[in-house]
Specification:
CATH class: Alpha Beta
Number of helices: 11
Strand order of the largest sheet: 1-2-4-3-5-6-7-8
Helix content: 40-55%
Number of domains: 1
CATH topology: Rossmann fold
Shape: globular
Largest sheet: 8 strands, mixed
Distance between the termini: 49 Å
Structural class: alpha/beta
CATH superfamily: Alpha/Beta hydrolase fold, catalytic domain
Oligomer: single chain
Order of helices and strands: HEEEHEHEHHEHHHEHEHH
Strand content: 15-25%
Number of strands: 8
Low-confidence stretches: 1-12, 14-19
Length: about 280
């Protein structure tokens, strides 16, 4: 019964992908760091066949506790956004335990530099690049946007027009590692943020919230982890107090994984929330 269900699910998923590929072009495994021959620094582009005009761009940074996950899992995100007239880019990056958060953030910044320089070839507007991250990907999106060192190292100005945090985790790793109850993932987090309390602070996007000037959309699940709820709301309140452009939306009955997995369905309401945010800014 389980095998039959799995086969039916996979068949339906194949049909789902095929049905929504019409009118879309896909280019996979582009190296955004020319010297890299492996799989850590690659990106996929999903874009409408009609490249007339310049379309908004969305770069997605996957989650996975900084030690897992891959861009290929989110092919449906690329196709769904491309079907909605968005040029969408999924990126991969180095993960723990082989690297720590500074290298991951540097990878993400390198990918954004590539997008800035090349996305016009695919109908994208290089002046309207939005970045969305889920979980640990939200941390990396927020970090490269708020800590200026990462784009400074790329010799470019911050190319991010707006940031979308989809249940972003790790906005204040100093607080989390200092106060949160230890669990099975704590050891992995300590490897990612190796270097003690100073590294925890330097790796926390909330440390640099004063640098934020571009629009933020903060999406949080009603039933997600308490640390995500607390720190996302804190970032929102800090930005409101500074009169920065920020929008906050709690999605009812959603847990952490569900916040991104729900978007496999093209008509999921999260798409409209995100598209409205992009069009209003």
């Amino acid at each position: 019964m389980c095998l039959r269900f799995s086969l039916i699910f996979l068949f339906n998923l194949f049909l789902f992908g095929s049905s929504f590929s019409k009118g879309i072009k896909i280019i996979k495994n582009i190296s955004y760091i020319n010297s890299d021959k492996g799989t850590s620094n690659l990106l996929d582009i999903y874009y409408p066949e009609k490249t007339d005009g310049k379309k908004d761009v969305l770069v997605f940074i996957h989650g996975g506790s900084w030690n897992s996950g891959k861009k290929d899992t989110y092919w449906w995100l690329g196709r769904n956004f491309a079907n909605k007239n968005i040029v969408e880019v999924n990126i991969s990056y180095s993960i723990s335990p082989d690297t720590q958060y500074p290298k991951m953030a540097a990878d993400a910044a390198s990918a954004l530099k590539w997008v800035k320089n090349n996305i016009g070839k695919y109908g994208g507007n290089s002046n309207r690049i939005f970045v969305m991250g889920h979980s640990a990907g939200g941390h990396l999106a927020a970090l490269i946007n708020s800590d200026p060192q990462y784009f400074h190292d790329q010799n470019i100005q911050n190319p991010i027009y707006g940031v979308i945090l989809n249940d972003g985790f790790g906005l204040d790793m100093y607080e989390y590692l200092l106060k949160a109850e230890k669990n099975t993932q704590t050891a992995g987090f300590m490897k990612t943020f190796d270097g003690g309390e100073e590294a925890w602070k330097k790796g926390s996007p909330l440390t640099y919230f004063d640098n934020i000037n571009n629009p933020y959309l903060i999406l949080v699940g009603e039933k997600t982890y308490p640390a995500i709820q607390i720190q996302s709301k804190r970032l929102y309140e800090l930005l409101v107090a500074k009169r920065k452009p920020v929008f906050f939306k709690e999605l009812k009955n959603k847990k952490h994984i569900g916040m991104i997995s729900q978007m496999i369905f093209r008509r999921n309401k999260s798409y409209q929330i995100i598209l409205d945010f992009m069009s209003l800014n």
